Amino acid sequence: MSYLNQIMGKGILLTLCFFSISVVAQNANPLKEKMYYNIDEAISENIKTKQLNLRDQQLFFLPKNINQLSELIFLNGMKNNLEHWDSDLFYLKKLKTINLKQNGLVQIPKEIKQLKDLEVLDLADNNIKKISPEIGNLQALKNVYLSGNKIAYLPVSMGDCASLEVLTLNNNQLAYIPDSFASLGQLKVLDLSYNQLYELNPGWLKLNNLEDLNIAYNKLKHIPEEINQCKSLKTLVLNDNKLKTLPESFGSLENLTLAILSNNEISVLPENLSGLTNLKTLILKGNTISEVEKNRIRAALPNCTIYF
Fold first, then answer.
1. With respect to CATH, is domain 35-168 assigned 3.30.470.30?
2. What is the mean pLDDT of residues 19-35?
3. What is the CA angle 298-254-285, rounded to 5?
């Protein structure tokens, strides 16, 4: 395994660990709350149960009596055959975590606005094409996982999800990110890899708390100078695009620790790299960089491990 693959693997592992910690933090306490795996059992034993796990039960729809579990805060229905949102789900006003990944859902409906306490929404690996603008009403939403769908358009109202911290949109069909994303002031992790982005509109690059930005495997030809407005950025992943240069402002990302820029068309880096004081790892494999430029980069970043 190449070192690049090792680095990418570690990055993915760390991201997954972060996501796992974030999700667990929103669940009911497993030491205090019993997890039920059958609705009838939950209703007969404890109508006020808070946790229900219906994972991998070959369900085509949620049981009608789920609406009786009005105290439910955690629902796992992943790996079933759900293609539609059952209306009974929206009676569960106290839900904080919904995991319906690996089903066949095609949209996020307008009724989602009724779940105002929702903090974690995992809909990865469905067939979602449409997201209702009503998602902007979910002010408590912190973690949203939408990777592996068929999303080509994001509603402007997503910028109203003011508490959002983690948003994964990798492996979709996005060609545009709305400027309203600039309002996501709490966002820390944004994954846009494996989409159809040809350019980044600079309007949304005002995310002061963003720490991890992944835009790998797109069709980007340049990065806006406004990237330096992401002042907290620690990890920047831009490999496998069509970049020829980076903006001069790249050199002022003082909190950046890892930059993956491999497999682009880069021949030179910005002239001033002195602001990258915390950069520990820089991956530039698969670019056309001269020996003179390599030596300049090494001299400018003496405390950074660089892979050409």
1. no
2. 54
3. 40
